[in-house]
Specification:
Length: 352
């Protein structure tokens, strides 16, 4: 085992504080990564505050990791020392179930998540990316292009793939009218991808001040979701709506906007359930409400390659790790443009 440092929550009400812990020595198929940048996902906040009821403490969050390979196990064939790499929400899965065989490791019943998830190797708990280094099986490490700004790549590992995957799965493209609900970390990537796939993109936001940014990011239209008159103009007109909102809210306002056979896809995971959908909204136009979870490793690499080819990255605010607690408060106020990314060079040995 090797000592390392990071920031951890000690319980569901404490702020994140400096924390010293151990990582395993690299196994033959492991890659050791010096973490350079880690994005701050709203899921980190849900989990450190135990809003999903499954938190284990101490918790080192962080699953939007970009770094540099510093060591490789003897059987590692995919990476070499010095490569720039990424790690997202997944660090393991069973490898043999139908989901794994279909390259959809995120749906494996034994998926191992990057943090707040049992460590299959040590029997302890996985610690995430708000830390100096991480050791991950090579099959769960991704190649990152040197063409893109590394800090702005980090959010692609969760916010990017979580929006890319459903847009691909439901075949969003040219000729489609697509809604993105919420302009935060996921939402801003949803706009970029839907626009890149050729769709007509409408952002639904509760924040009128974000309208100009939304258009710059690729939205063709912006609708203030609290304004019933504006919402009413779009009744029964959407092919697909991707809802990224992190809080419980009325879904009927969105199902009513879908065409016949249209789909409302939920990716936000609020701590409280949404009020039930009005069944009439669904059956009279054969509309669907569906959900989607991040993406598998193969698709995540495809997404990163797509981003490198099309010069797509996240719009970020870089922070030193010492500002993480203030950053959480700003995310909770929907006040981030549009993803915080921690520069791990700020993490000092002397703090711990
Ligand atoms: P975020 O940056 O906080 O963005 C969420 C956006 O939702 C806000 O910027 C805001 O946009 C809107 N919003 C917030 N509260 C609202 C409310 N009460 N009513 C209506 N809109 C509201 O969060 P994120 O990092 O993008 O994550 C979003 C959600 O996705 C979280 O629940 C997270 O846990 C979940 N998530 C799911 C997956 C998955 O695999 N399914 C992966 C990652 C994250 P406006 O200001 O534009 O209204
Ligand atoms: Zn995330």
């Amino acid at each position: 085992m090797q000592k390392t440092i990071g920031y951890a929550a000690r319980n569901n009400t404490s702020p994140l504080v400096p924390f010293s812990f151990e990582r395993r020595d690299p196994l033959p198929t492991d890659v050791q990564i010096e973490i350079l940048f880690c994005g701050v996902c709203h899921s980190d906040i849900h989990q450190v505050r135990n809003e999903w009821g499954n938190a284990t403490f101490p918790m080192v969050p962080g699953h939007e990791i970009v770094g540099k390979v510093t060591q490789v196990g003897s059987q590692v064939s995919k990476f070499k020392i010095g490569d720039h790499v990424g790690v997202g929400c997944l660090v393991g899965s069973c490898g043999v179930c139908p989901d794994c065989k279909d390259h959809l490791e995120q749906y494996c019943n034994n998926a191992e998540f990057t943090y707040n998830s049992p460590d299959k190797h040590s029997g302890g708990t996985n610690y995430g990316g708000y830390s100096r280094q991480i050791v991950v099986n090579q099959d769960f490490v991704l190649h990152v292009s040197d063409k893109l700004e590394l800090a702005a790549v980090a959010p692609l590992l969760c916010a990017g793939i979580t929006t890319y995957s459903p847009l691909k799965h439901w075949n969003v493209g040219k000729g489609d009218k697509v809604g993105i609900v919420g302009l935060g970390g996921l939402g801003h990537m949803g706009i970029k991808f839907a626009h890149a796939f050729g769709a007509y993109v409408v952002l639904f936001t509760t924040s009128p001040g974000k309208a100009e940014d939304a258009k710059r990011l690729g939205a063709d239209e912006v609708v203030i979701s609290k304004n019933p008159e504006e919402m009413g103009k779009h009744l029964a007109s959407f092919d697909f709506i991707l809802n990224t909102v992190a809080a419980s809210h009325n879904l009927d306002a969105y199902t009513a906007l879908l065409k016949r056979d249209g789909t409302l896809c939920l990716v936000g995971v609020p701590d409280q359930p949404h009020p039930s959908p009005a069944i009439g909204n669904l059956i009279f136009k054969r509309r669907s409400i569906v959900g989607s979870l991040i993406g598998g490793l193969k698709e995540t690499q495809e997404m990163l390659d797509f981003c490198a080819k099309n010069a797509i990255t996240s719009d970020i605010e870089i922070i030193p790790i010492q500002q993480i607690n203030e950053a959480y408060e700003r995310v909770l106020k929907s006040d981030v443009k549009y993803r915080f990314v921690i520069d791990l060079a700020s993490l000092q040995e002397t703090e711990v």
